[in-house]
């Protein structure tokens, strides 16, 4: 960062508990199909095992996607890196960030996680969901401070027409 406040980069990764939230139905389905496939009395038990293995493969791929997901908040940008077979890196300039939301589904409430939604004026990524972040992580506060600093640094002011 050139001339000004030196922020240390903050790197966030989704918790593995988010996998349980996202893939609960396929996990339970795979378990049920594996049990049914193990019973000889069930007609088409090889089909059950095949479907169960396909569901397991889907869960393993989702796990790989989750482990390769990384959000980095630098002094000037929010960087989202993702992908298993090909890697993508998306950037949001912090001065373009307009608003934040914190959302928690029922399962996220139970498992102590949250999703932070960042709204920006960026054309390619107007909304970025930072999923599976631990409940106690102060993501919004970190972003607010850096967004405010970058807006002041670049002399950007927001004008709203409220009635």
What's the oligomerization state?
A: single chain
Classify the fold: give the CATH topology of the largest domain: PH-domain like
| CATH class type of the largest domain | Mainly Beta
Tell me, briefly, the overall form.
elongated
Number of domains: 2
Give the CATH architecture of the largest domain: Roll
Q: Let me know the average pLDDT.
A: 92
User: DSSP strand (E) fraction?
Assistant: 25-35%
Largest sheet: 4 strands, antiparallel
Distance between the termini: 39 Å
What are the segments in which pLDDT stays under 50 over at least 5 consecutive residues? none
Give the H and E element order: EHHHEEEEHEEH
Helix content: 25-40%
Q: Give the structural class.
A: alpha+beta
Strand order across the largest sheet: 1-2-3-4
Q: What is the gyration radius calculated from CA atoms?
A: 21 Å
Number of E strands: 7
DSSP helix count? 5
Structure description:
The protein is α+β, with helices and mostly antiparallel strands and 163 residues long. It folds into 2 domains: 10-14 and 71-153, PH-domain like, CATH 2.30.29; 20-64. Helix content is 39%, strand content 26%. It contains 5 helices and 7 strands; from the N terminus they run βαααββββαββα. The strands form 2 sheets. Strands 1-2-3-4 form a 4-stranded antiparallel β-sheet. It has a 3-stranded antiparallel β-sheet with strand order 5-6-7. A hairpin with a 6-residue loop joins strand 6 and strand 7. The model has no long low-confidence stretch (mean pLDDT 92).
């Amino acid at each position: 960062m050139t001339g000004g406040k030196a922020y240390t980069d903050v790197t966030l990764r989704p918790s593995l508990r988010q996998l349980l939230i996202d893939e609960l139905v396929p996990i339970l389905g795979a378990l049920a199909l594996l049990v049914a496939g193990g019973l000889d009395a069930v007609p088409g038990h090889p089909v059950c095992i095949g479907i169960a293995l396909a569901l397991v493969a889907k869960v393993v791929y989702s796990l790989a996607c989750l482990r390769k997901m990384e959000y980095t908040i630098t002094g000037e940008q929010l960087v989202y890196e993702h992908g298993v077979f090909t890697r993508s890196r998306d950037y949001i300039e912090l001065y373009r960030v307009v608003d934040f939301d914190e959302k928690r589904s029922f399962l996220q409430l139970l498992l102590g996680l949250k999703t932070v939604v960042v709204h920006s004026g960026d054309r390619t990524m107007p909304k970025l969901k930072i999923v599976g972040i631990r409940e106690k992580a102060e993501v919004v506060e970190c972003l607010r401070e850096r967004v405010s600093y970058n807006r002041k640094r670049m002399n950007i002011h927001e004008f709203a027409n409220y009635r």
